[in-house]
Amino acid sequence: PSDSVDVDDDSDSAAFRIIKFSANGTIEWQSVFWGSDDDDILSVRETSDNGYIIGAIIDAGEIEKHNKNLKIEIKETKKRGVGEGDDYWVIKTDNKGKVEWQNFYGGEDDDELVEVFQTKDGGYLIYGESDSEKKNEIGSHGGGDYWVIKTDAFGSQEWQKCYGGSGYDEADYAIQTSDNYYYFAGESRSKNGQIKNNIGMKDVWIFKTDVLGNMLWEKSIGSIYDDNIKGFTQTNDGGVVVCGQTYHSVKGYLENADTIYNWVTKLNSLGNVEWNKRLDTNRNNFIISSIPTDN
Question: Are 129 and 169 in contact (CB under 8 A)?
Fold first, then answer.
């Protein structure tokens, strides 16, 4: 990806392609985005107008460009993004991959986007993890926070919120419900702030918000050691199912584990645990996702 700044033949430049295929595999069109080796496209989703919303990370800050075609070398400083570390980068295209608009969101440190998706009002929800504490992230708790931004249909910010504590908290999943609430899930190493019941070294942390991002409830799930989230799905009754791995457990929801185990927990829409299961499998078998069924 790139931020509409011309990229010369510097060795660190890279091209990323978005390719549209027909149903039978024929290439219909492709768009090329130029940037550096440190830029990444993280998500691409179709929008209601048959266009696409692209979520990316751009290596922001000032960079030097060298004009190699002159006898006298000229160094030119150009600004990328809005912050100093990595920034969220969101690009909206039409149905042929032509850029309609793009925006950057970030602070003085690294801000790592996970995903962007269109919301029911035609705007967008952008989320990930932020290490910034001063510049554009209002309400930072320190360390790394879940950082969520809600925009209108053209990428203009409507609200933004940081969630977490003073430790490292990383968002992995977000869901908008049919009644316009949001669920968020990820991992947390915090023992304070908005985390009210830390269990171990690293917990799975889930919370629900209203349409404006105000937290309604939060829940930590895990053991006394490290727990990793691997899947997060809304269920037909309005609750959620979270699945992951635990490395050990003596207390908490996942008991009597002395190695790596897969687990699944069901929460209702109020955040109460309805059931949890530890899946006794071979050490090399890992759970990777979950999906709801009709029954």
Answer: yes
Positions of the chain with pLDDT lower than 70, given as ranges: 1-14, 35-37, 61-84, 133-139, 247-259, 280-295
Residue 157 CB-density burial (10 A; 0-12 exposed, 13-18 middle, 19+ buried): middle
How many Å apart are CA 48 and CA 51, to the nearest integer?
A: 7
User: What's residue 7's pLDDT?
Assistant: 33
Tokens of 243: 């699945």
Q: What is the pLDDT of residue 10?
A: 46
Reading the block at residue 1, the tokens are: 């990806």
pLDDT at 9: 42
Q: Are 127 and 180 in contact (CB under 8 A)?
A: no
Distance between CA atoms of 24 and 193, rounded to whole angstroms?
A: 52
Specify whether the CB–CB gap between 107 and 86 falls below 8 A.
no
Whole-angstrom Cα distance, residue 230 to residue 221?
A: 13
What letter represents residue 92's amino acid?
Answer: K
Asked whether the beta carbons of 118 and 47 are under 8 A apart, the reply is yes
Burial of 208 (0-12, 13-18, 19+ CB in 10 A): buried
Residues 178-195 have pLDDT tens digits of: 899 999 999 999 999 999
* Residue burial 164-186, b: 16+ Cβ < 10 Å; e: rest: bbbbbbbbbbbbbeeeeebbbbb
- DSSP code for 9: S
